[in-house]
Amino acid sequence: MYSKEVERILLKVQKPGRYVGGELNSVIKDKKDIDVRFAFCFPDVYEVGMSHLGMKILYSQFNTVPYIWCERVFAPWIDMEELMIERNIPLYGLESGDPITDFDFIGFTLQYELSYTNVLNMLKLAKIPIKSKDRPELKNIVVAGGPCACNPEPLAEFIDIFFIGEGEEVDLEVIELYRKFRAENKSKKEFLIAASQIQGVYVPALYNVEYNNDGTIKSFTPEEGAPAKITKRLMMNLDEVFYPDNFVVPTIEIIHDRAVEEIFRGCIRGCRFCQAGFLYRPVREKSVATIDKQCRELCKNTGYDEVSLSSLSSSDYSRVVELLTQLNKWSNEEKVSISLPSLRVDGFTDDIMSKIKTVRKSGLTFAPEAGSQRLRNVINKNVFEDELLQTCDTAFGGGWSKVKLYFMIGLPTETLDDVAEIAALGQKVVDTYYRNPNKQKGRAVSVTVSASSFVPKPFTPFQWEPQDTIPQLHEKQQHLKKSITTKKITYNYHEADTSFLEAVFARGDRKLCKVMEIACQNGFHFDGWDDCFSLDAWMKLFEQCGIDTAFYANRRRSFDELLPWDHIDYGVTKEFLISECKKAYEAATTPNCRQKCSNCGVGKWKGGICVEKRQSMV
Amino acid sequence: MRNVRVWFKKEGTAKYISHLDLNRNMLRIIHMAKLPIWYTEGFNPHPFITFALPLSLGFSGLRESMDFKLLDDEMDLNEVKDRLNKCLPGGITVYDVTEQVMKPARITYALFNLKLSCDTVNTDELYEKVRELFAMDEIMMDKKSKAGIKEVDLKENICKFDIKNCESYVNIDVILPAGSMTNVNPKLIVDALKKFFDIEADFEIVRVDIYNENVESFV
To answer: A310 - beta bridge partners?
Structure first.
């Protein structure tokens, strides 16, 4: 429960419902039964953070342990932040209203690079020193996980412990260790050294980095017996892994306001730009029976009338039709609709179409990612133009008339001709609509073409690639705009400025910590929001710190360079990534994991799809 | 099929649920409670519910009501209450489910309770200023509506009031016009203190009851 001081400012800010808690299924515990308090912090506003599945899973899981109380914390929006600072109100947990300084663990999930300043800003609002070395006591341990933890280096000076990989087990092991060490009156240093021995734990303070004269990394040396390679954690059996039977149900509208059921982890595809496709290998599916049971429980305990079947590419679930048939057995009667996000162009069949979203026909979204076949081969998207047009035809015949197409510009080897082909592809979709005899009578087609700017990410075959400079990206955006000649196509593009900053942080090293620190002092926050982001301000800061941003974003790295994240092991070998990169230059594709094993390295764990029988063998 | 009226309190954290969000939440809650109620029959079927009188964001309400059509004529109304209470978020409690006696269109007045306090002015002085305000011949205030800003005389709209000095705060009970015809927001009293005496008061506002044209409780 929020304090009296908070109550007095709530009616002065937008959407006060963000700051009060009290939602259905939020967990309130009696402090006298609690041994460890965990503040789960999402470094963005409530509506964004509450839509995040990972937080829902860990929140529920932590709270099933009787002596742990996990609370939620979100970044207050700028109006609230201003009043909190003015009135000296520290950042607090939504469940208890207690200040974050009362918590044993302060955990952040790192979903996107542009939230890094919010991480530091939230510590600042909590009145907790942002640098790890300025927090010498065994309390307020700052931990972080999530996909961006794969390159933890830009945050190395601030975070005590990074969790690499999936958190269900490793988080609890670390909490248990903390409990033991605190009872024995051990120091924080002793705790961190012991924690570094747990698989999936990275304690950046225990590693020493030396640089070459050109700014690249010379050596990376573990101290105090910390492992030279930090290997990710992963859950092999998804039928047995913890999954919540209820979600906290927000009273204000959030981004994804529905029940979410995770149907598998990983992705069979191996698109070469996609970090998630490599980080979460191997593919591990839940069984139809488990999904069915969990969906029912979630609907019962939340009242949601929509379940989203979530994964990196939901139509790749091996028994998707069987699953939808099973869910439809009760969903229609219970007035629950099933939605299948992340549909692939080649995964949208009549059979699937008839079983999802039978009530509302909203737009369909597909991501061909590149306009030309050559470039789609470069990125290993393995989608063909006729498949896309066939799929759109199916959808148009089924009553849809809105299609969104996602593309990236600035992909490796891309030319202006490739860019123009995005417009051509959009035009072909428009033409397909007008040729379809079963389309909705009297309705015009609406095709939205969205183009984001490619950001090279660690642990992908493109991790060595330079990002296009901002002027190059602008030229391509304008070229695409000029190439679109019909009003049936709406063209959206993302600002290249934010993609550039994302590229700097995504492949940054520890030298960026200084910039982060000053950014925090200068009040930088919400870089993912146009209201707050200013590239000019960032460029001044980089200049002030003597940082050359092109070194991080626009430089081609050589295959033998020691990369800032090379000490982190996600199972996929560097040799595999190099071979994939070379194949990209030849526009050669790689078959997906279900067709053929490409020997990426994660087979060493002998689990998931790596040990399943392939279709070609059965 | 029968028309029922669900009576509930909205207080605590639920004060910060806007009317639009309340509507959305109630639809979900009715679905969750598996109440047999009438759904609209359009392209997007949803439970058909109406609220007698929206409550401003940040106010507590002690006699809030929501109407719907129950398909099951035999269902015990206490069960409707219990099922809803199991699904509601913190701060909302259903305390009764009844027949719909009056039509919401008859709502004419509402009784509000205001508790005012202030950092810069002590309660005695605040009490005097509030009394002074209520004693003025007219209290002209800007009232925002969809049509734009309109000037209203708060004074002539105050039907009945009582002001008490309660040591740590000033207590005001006031009846104001409410309903679909004229509606005066009690927050204007707080705004008037700022406008005429430059006092920025902290406030808690509770809508205690809702009345028809004869100042009888809406039932």
So the answer is: A262
Residues B159-194 as b or e (16 or more Cβ within 10 Å = b): beeebeeeeebbebebbbebbeeebbbbbbbbbbbe
What is the per-residue pLDDT for A326?
95
Length of chain B: 219
Nearest to A605 by CA among A559, A569, A565, A567: A569
The token pair that represents A403 in the structure block: 């299609």
Task: Please give the model's pTM, rounded to 2 decimal places.
Answer: 0.94
Across the interface, which of A10, A11, A17 has its CB nearest the CB of B17? A17
CB atoms within 10 A of CB A225: 10
Token digits of residue A530: 């146009």
What is the pLDDT at residue A443?
85
Selected for mutation to probe chain B from A2, A251, A307 (highest B CB count within 10 Å) is A251
A4-231 is a CATH 3.30.2010.30 domain? no
CATH 1.10.150 is held by the domain B106-211: no
* Minimal C-alpha gap between B215 and chain A (Å): 30
The highest-level CATH class for domain A361-511+547-570 is alpha beta
Query: Between vectors from CA B204 to CA B200 and to CA B210, what angle results, nearest 5°?
Result: 125
Nearest chain B Cα to A27, which residue?
B90
pLDDT exceeds 80 at position B44:
no
Q: Pick out chain A residues at pLDDT < 70.
A: 357-362, 614-618
Q: Is the model's pLDDT at B50 over the cut of 60?
A: yes
pLDDT of residue A616: 52
Residue ranges of chain A assigned to CATH 3.40.50.280: 4-231
- Burial readout A398-421 (b: 16 or more C-beta within 10 A, e: otherwise): bebbbbbbebbbbbbebeeebbbb
- Distance, in Å, from the CA atom of A291 to the CA atom of A297, rounded to the nearest integer, reads 10
* Interface mutation target, options B31, B34, B49, chain A, most CBs of A under 10 Å: B31
Cα torsion at A196, A198, A199, A202 (round to 10°)?
-20
The Cα diameter of chain B in Å comes to 59
Interface size A-B, in CB pairs within 8 Å, comes to: 63
Which residues in B lie closer than 8 A to residue A300 (C-beta atoms)? 32
Residue A555's pLDDT is what? 97
* Res. B192: pLDDT tops 80: yes
Which residues of chain B does A10 touch, with a Cβ-Cβ cutoff of 8 Å?
Answer: 16, 58
The lowest-confidence range among A568-577, B143-152, B160-169 is: B143-152
From residue A591, how far is each of A22, A375, A594, B183 by CA, in Å?
Answer: 49, 16, 8, 67
The verdict on a CB contact (< 8 Å) between A21 and B13 is: yes
- Domain extent listing, chain B: 2-101, 106-211
State which amino acid sits at residue B79. Answer: E
Residue in A closest to B56 by C-alpha: A11
* Fold of the CATH domain A258-353+588-618: Transcription Regulator spoIIAA (3.30.750)
Nearest CA-CA partner of A607 in A280, A366, A128, A388: A280
Angle between helices B77-87 and B19-32 (to 10 degrees): 110
Determine which of A313-317, B141-145, B210-214 has the lowest per-residue pLDDT on average.
Answer: B141-145
The confidence score (pLDDT) of residue A618 equals 42
Provide the CATH number for the domain formed by B2-101 in this structure: 3.30.70.580
Taking the Cβ of residue B90 and every Cβ of chain A, the question of whether any pair is shorter than 8 Å is answered with yes
Beta bridge mates, A74? A42
Given an 8 Å threshold on Cβ–Cβ distance, is A10 in contact with B16?
yes
Cβ separation of B32 and A303 shorter than 8 Å? Answer: yes
Identity of the amino acid at A263? I
Q: Which residues on chain A are in Cβ contact (under 8 Å) with B86?
A: none
What residues form DSSP beta bridges with A217? A211
- What tokens does A308 get? 């989203």
